[in-house]
Design goal:
mainly alpha; two-stranded antiparallel sheet; about 70% helix
């Protein structure tokens, strides 16, 4: 798993890796390699403070659990983060380099690295904990060589820790040595013996010499958790507080249990003691104890106490011996708490566990499964797990359909309309069955349930996004926003606004889009959820680029990025914002920086399984070729894709790209042939504008396709830059494109005026390739009445 994360980091998938590593370090908290990967990934997401916090979490955990400081690699990594060391930065050219903490800290140029083993020597695992064994063996070697206490860290970091931590370093060796009194053990002796496989027996032998009441109490405590809560144990065992403490005394004297660091309580002295006791209990007995602990927790917890995670754990661990209905109930409550905290992966994990606990014997098992699947899809969608979210929604719809439950089918269906910057479907994909269901339900509920009506309307607007159907969706989007304004509830308003902005983009209703953006950003923050705030801000950033207001873009980008990273922790929004930022640099001619941002934004989205991958990749690539002046070099390649299209979108995108490439090369005849054979009005979608802008440049050069038709399509976009969606420059100023078409149509005065307007905008943003193009056009208009030629 760590190797896959290394590969993701090497390819620029920092945001997705950071999200995964948050869960991975919780699952295996003593693996230093995972902490190092988390620190690197978080730092590369622009979150230096979070990277330092991750190091401190690791340091505290290692000290508490093993009495150790982080290894040298982690210590050097912290220093590098503090110094903002350039060696931590990711460079696309080093995509083949494996990202390891020690490699990241060297100042030499990155070289391809061989796979590195995890820290610690090879050997048998310590109850599945290789990293911990590595630490233990390292400390044993230090004990044998007399080097205990000689630390390499600086005096400024060497503040005295509690004396109990220093004593704890050698506790495990002393405990094992105490079980081999016939022959004193050295550190080398301990390492030579099969400590990993035998350590449980060593610990259990010590437990076996305790009184029966103490052993029984420790077994219950091991199931309850590492912390020994006297109040909880009293309720589980029925023993009063005084006798409970008396029963614990022998375990304390044996060094198996110690007082908690804070408060009135106790804990197992080492995780291995807890794990050994837990594993030694039979499956049925352990399940029954989980039920007893869960019941006690229910009795002693108050409504204000967050014990849903513990209750879910115990009821899930009890399996069929316990209460599956309660297992599902508490897992869903734990997931809901995680959602409120923005911990999407934790929420998804709780809900996945809930699904495993839904027994067919449960009343309404199918209905419960539908509901949990919808909640799981929503958690995954919020966490950027797009493919997995769609799978959950689709399974819920299919199950509800088999049950004949239209309400639950509708609940799963409207989940596709959740707030999002980009649409949920692939290019040209339409779920006619879902649309028919939503329209039928819309008629059924009428005006009786405005909140539900908003969700149905918004989902219809999101689903009806492609080609002519988009105009039908636009009608639904307008109604959804109108009803949501009257309701003035953040959730419904956010869903309606998200659908409206998406529909306005694909139907080319940009003035209305800008008006709603301004309206939403003048509202108080509590009127919109953080997710919708980020979406609206991202839309406004795109409009700043379109109008050439790059200074305002730069001033406003930080707020959107803060919401995507620090508030929402959304790899999806982070990747999308990186592509928006890339567009900002492409339109001013900074191709190198734009290309780097595309690399860092596109790969996380690719990992998440975002929609429109094929057209998105083609558009990004062709825009880079156009603004870098290399499109002509790829004309044959694009023409070849026309002959063998590998995706339904390619003919609409590759045809204008190939024709423009040949026109820029000066092969007018070949450009004209492609236009004559392949031109068709592009379908309405977010890719529409690139095809129109490319064909306009072709028509200026060769006279086809029809310049008048193209002029009418572009005319509403005067005073704008030609950008496609949120991601690419496809032709400089629209007025410059209109100038070329006007000249083709025999209107030189209008052409000159348009060209001057376009040149002013291109000069303001600093795009030299378009400045040169438009100046050349103005010169040609002034010297001849014939058609321009590249």
């Amino acid at each position: 798993m760590e190797d896959r994360i290394d590969a993701s980091l090497a390819l620029g998938g920092h945001a997705q890796a950071a999200a995964e590593l948050d869960a991975m370090v919780q699952a295996r908290p003593l693996r230093e390699r995972r902490w190092a990967q988390l620190i690197v990934a978080t730092y590369r997401c622009g979150r230096q403070a979070d990277a330092l916090r991750a190091y401190q979490r690791c340091r505290t955990l290692l000290a508490d659990e093993l009495g150790l400081e982080p290894g040298p690699d982690l210590q050097r990594l912290e220093t590098a983060v503090l110094n903002q060391d350039a060696s931590l930065d990711w460079h696309p050219a080093a995509a083949a380099v494996k990202v390891l903490p020690n490699a990241a800290l060297r100042h030499a140029k990155a070289q391809p690295a061989e796979p590195q083993p995890a820290a610690g020597p090879a050997g048998p695992s310590l109850v599945g904990r290789d990293a911990e064994l590595g630490h233990l063996r390292g400390r044993l070697r230090e004990l044998a060589s007399g080097k205990v206490g000689r630390w390499s860290w600086s005096a400024s970091r060497a503040r005295a820790r509690p004396r109990s931590r220093r004593r704890r370093r050698t506790w495990l060796v002393r405990l094992i040595s105490g079980e081999h009194r016939r022959q004193p053990l050295t550190a080398d002796d301990v390492q030579a013996r099969d400590v990993p496989s035998g350590i449980r027996d060593v610990l259990l032998r010590r437990v076996g010499r305790l009184p029966d009441d103490t052993r029984s109490l420790l077994m219950v405590a091991a199931v309850a958790g590492r912390e020994l809560d006297p109040d909880l144990l009293e309720h589980v065992t029925g023993i009063d507080a005084e006798h409970l403490l008396l029963n614990l005394e022998p375990a304390i004297a044996a060094g198996l249990v110690t007082s908690a660091d804070e408060g009135w309580g106790f804990r197992f002295r080492h995780p291995l003691i807890h794990e050994s006791l837990y594993a030694s209990t039979g499956h049925i007995d352990r399940a029954r104890l989980h039920v007893r602990v869960a019941a006690a927790l229910e009795d002693i917890s108050s409504a204000s106490t967050a014990v849903d995670v513990q209750l879910a754990y115990h009821y899930l661990s009890a399996g069929p011996v316990g209460d599956p209905a309660k297992a599902v109930k508490y897992a869903r409550e734990a997931a809901a708490r995680a959602v409120r905290q923005g911990a999407w992966q934790d929420a998804a994990r709780h809900l996945e566990q809930a699904l495993t606990a839904i027994s067919p014997a449960l009343p309404d098992a199918g209905a419960i499964r539908c509901d949990v699947l919808v909640e799981l899809g929503q958690a995954r969608r919020s966490g950027g797990m797009i493919r997995e979210a769609h799978a959950a929604f689709e399974e819920s719809i299919s199950l509800a359909d088999r049950l004949g439950d239209e309400d639950r089918t509708l609940a799963a269906g409207v989940a596709f309309g959740a707030p999002q910057l980009w649409g949920p479907r692939e290019w040209g994909e339409t779920d006619t069955r879902l649309i028919a269901l939503l329209e039928r339900q819309l008629g059924r509920i009428g005006d009786s349930d405005p909140a539900r009506r908003v969700r149905i309307l918004a989902t219809l607007a999101t689903e009806l996004y492609f080609d002519e159907a988009a105009f039908r969706g636009w009608g639904y989007a307008n109604e959804a926003l109108e009803v949501a304004r009257r309701l003035d509830q953040p959730d419904e308003l956010g869903i309606a606004v998200s659908a409206y902005l998406w529909s306005a983009e694909v139907t080319d209703n940009l003035p209305q889009l800008r008006a709603v953006i301004d309206e939403m950003l003048t509202r108080r923050q509590e009127h919109l959820t953080p997710q919708v705030q980020a979406i609206v801000l991202a839309r406004r950033l795109t409009e700043r680029i379109r109008s050439g207001e790059l200074t305002r873009f730069d001033a406003e980008f930080a707020q959107a990025w803060w919401l995507a990273t620090d508030v929402l922790h959304s790899p999806e929004l982070q990747g999308q914002l990186r592509l928006v930022e890339a567009c900002r640099y492409l339109v001013c001619g900074d191709v190198e920086r734009g290309a780097g941002l595309i690399e860092s934004g596109y790969q996380p989205l690719l990992n998440l399984g975002f929609t429109w991958q094929e057209p998105g990749q083609f558009i990004l690539g062709s825009c880079l070729m156009l603004v870098s002046g290399t499109l002509a070099d790829h004309a044959e390649q694009m023409a070849a894709r026309l002959a063998r299209p590998d995706h339904p979108s390619i003919s609409h995108l590759a045809a204008p790209g190939a024709a423009l490439g040949y026109a820029l090369r000066g092969d007018i005849e070949r450009a004209r042939q492609i236009a004559a054979c392949w031109f068709a009005p592009p379908p309405r979608s977010w890719t529409w504008f690139q095809a129109i802008a490319y064909w306009a440049q072709v028509a200026t050069a060769v006279g086809v396709p029809d310049p008048a038709w193209l002029y009418d399509q572009l005319a509403p976009h005067t005073s704008e830059l030609a950008i496609v969606g949120h991601v690419g420059d496809c032709g400089g100023a629209v007025d410059s494109l209109l100038a070329g078409l006007a000249w083709r149509l025999g209107r030189p005065n209008e052409a000159t005026e348009r060209a001057q307007t376009g040149l002013a905008l291109e000069t303001r943003v600093g795009s030299q390739i378009w400045i040169n193009r438009t100046k050349d056009l103005i010169s040609r208009i002034g010297t001849t009445q014939s058609s321009p030629s590249f």
